[in-house]
Design goal:
By secondary structure, the chain is of the alpha/beta class. The chain has helices at residues 67-75, 99-115, 129-139, 166-171, 188-191, 193-201, 209-214, 216-224, 254-266, 287-303, 352-357, 368-375, 381-389; strands spanning 7-8, 30-32, 47-52, 87-93, 119-123, 144-149, 178-186, 205-208, 228-232, 272-276, 318-325, 330-337, 343-346, 363-366. Strands 1, 2, 3, 4, 5, 6, 7, 8, 9 and 10 form a 10-stranded mixed beta sheet that branches. A 4-stranded antiparallel beta sheet has the order 11-12-13-14. α1 packs across α10 (287-303), α8 runs parallel beside α9 and α9 (254-266) packs parallel to α10 (287-303).
């Protein structure tokens, strides 16, 4: 396999993992690249894990490079969520001489896995590795949507790519393969109005922590629209996730992160999940690593319960609703899945060239509340921002 040169095997002894003890634990369903076994073959449509022990781009959070095996130590010992599942663990990416070397290796791995229609879980490492994931989509010339779960926007100005600047550096790439970005759960006292305004100017979408906690259906729609879901574990409150150099007393509860990970796992569109900034140095008896293992477990459960009900691929499984907006002189076309009750709204695009480029992004996941808003004669804000992205 071409990507083997970028990978190092896992030492099973470091995981305190003994598969013979219990046949129903998740580790028995994982084919891992270890010091005792060769790199397994990636099977089309499957689920793949890889660790990245890189933290040189971390903003004052050195030590998060040690997270991948710490997470595995708890993940491998959880119960199997479904029968007849199979997961590939590629081991850990060999740390490059420079961060650019590591980014390139990660990008190659992302491209290899996604080309095989698999879904990749990246265990970081620092949040700047999201830039490397983006570069993998760039290698494939593939337009992507990114949804982050983060208390901050990572839009700080610096040509050096770090955990606080990676998103701005993606935006500055030319040609650019990022179509739409959404952030879930920012905390304004960490962000400031300047960056809230910048997100709005960029026609990106952002929801405050309180907005999402009061309506998790909004998070579900945003995650269903993501090719790549990127999680900064600083989004979880300190009481549930102390393993971070910048813990906050406020944030999501661990069970709320698990709920969102199940949403992401169930999304047919999502082909990459990254979990970053867990620093074992600050953990409390593995509390945060254990919580993250639970979150990944929920993603796995969602993945193996995916229902292909997107109107673009299975229109026969959806009800079609047309809403007339007389004041705007337009129609909005909503679709509701007969199987899951999930909603989408079609985004019109009249330019044939753009239709070819953005064909996978013309159906926008939404909520029943968006449909109700349209029924009242108002254009949903998410739809309007998304529509404007076609003509920036």
């Amino acid at each position: 396999m071409r990507i083997k040169k970028y990978l190092s095997p896992i030492d099973p002894d470091e995981l305190d993992y003994y598969p013979s003890q219990m046949s129903v634990i998740l580790g028995t369903a994982i084919q891992a690249y270890t010091t005792e076994s060769d790199l397994p073959e990636i099977i089309e449509g499957g689920l793949v894990l890889v660790g990245v022990e890189e933290d040189r781009g971390a903003e004052n959070n050195a030590g998060c490079a040690n997270a991948p095996n710490e997470i595995r130590r708890f993940l491998y010992q959880l119960a199997i969520p479904n029968d007849n599942i199979s997961i590939i663990d590629l081991g850990n990416v060999i740390t490059g001489q420079t961060t650019d070397d590591t980014y390139y290796a990660v990008a190659e791995i992302v491209a290899e896995v996604v080309r095989k229609k698999c879904t990749l879980i990246v265990l970081g490492g620092s949040h700047d590795l999201s830039f490397a994931v983006y570069k993998g989509y760039e290698m494939m010339n593939r337009i992507m949507n990114i949804t982050t779960i983060d208390s901050r926007f990572d839009l700080e100005t610096n040509e050096i790519i770090t955990s606080r600047t990676w998103l701005r550096n993606i935006i500055m790439q030319s040609p650019n393969f990022l179509f739409f970005h959404s952030n879930i759960g920012h905390q304004t006292y960490f962000v400031g109005q300047k960056y809230v305004n910048l997100m709005d100017e960029l026609k990106f979408d952002a929801y405050r922590l309180g907005e999402i906690k009061s309506d998790m259906t909004r998070a579900e729609a945003l995650l269903r629209n993501a090719d790549f879901v990127s999680v900064d574990l600083g989004c979880v409150r300190q009481s549930d996730a102390p393993a971070n150099a910048f813990p906050s007393p406020h944030g999501f509860y661990g069970e709320e992160l698990c709920q969102m990970m199940r949403f992401a796992g169930m999304s047919d569109k999502t082909h990459c999940l990254g979990l970053f900034e867990l620093n074992p140095i600050f953990d409390n008896h593995g509390q945060t690593a254990h919580m993250v293992a639970h979150a990944i477990w929920y993603f796995i459960e969602g993945f193996f319960n995916r229902i292909k009900d997107n109107p673009l691929s299975n229109p026969e499984n959806c009800k079609h609703f047309i809403v007339e907006l007389e004041d705007q002189g337009m129609q909005m076309h909503f679709y509701k899945s007969k199987i899951t009750d999930r909603w989408w709204v079609k985004v019109p695009c009249e330019n044939p060239d753009l239709i070819d480029i953005y064909s996978d992004h013309l159906m926008l996941p939404c909520t029943y509340a968006d449909y109700q808003q349209a029924m009242q004669g108002d254009v949903p804000n998410l739809w309007w921002k998304y529509y404007q992205r076609f003509y920036l």
